[in-house]
Amino acid sequence: MARIFLDTNFLIDAIHRKPEQEILTLLENHDIYISSLSFHIYCYIFKIKIPDKRVSEQKDKFNIIDFSDDILEVALSGPTIDFEDNVQLHSGAEAEADIFLTSDQNLLAMKFFGKTKLVQKIS
């Protein structure tokens, strides 16, 4: 069983764009982590009105990494020029993730962030 962190784009695919069951079934035997900011971004992009039963049910499927002052501090220093990407990367590190799932080509080019492997799919 691996510790897997979902980048925001992957979370949105898992709960909104692609058949939810397809992605969640692939992740079934793993510990899945996301940043609390990912739900903020998801609700903002899709203009979801709160309270929303589906969002609450989705949230319960994941371990949530809080956006803390510590994550803010390290995200402001990199490793990329994109603040949101940095928040996601450092949130994955906070989760001690083995794998960071993303479809962001710039992040995938990094291959690793610390001990965390950045990939587009689970092999």
Automatic annotation (TrEMBL):
<protein>
    <recommendedName>
        <fullName>PIN domain-containing protein</fullName>
    </recommendedName>
</protein>
<dbReference type="InterPro" id="IPR029060">
    <property type="entry name" value="PIN-like_dom_sf"/>
</dbReference>
<dbReference type="Pfam" id="PF01850">
    <property type="entry name" value="PIN"/>
</dbReference>
<dbReference type="InterPro" id="IPR002716">
    <property type="entry name" value="PIN_dom"/>
</dbReference>
<feature type="domain" description="PIN">
    <location>
        <begin position="4"/>
        <end position="109"/>
    </location>
</feature>
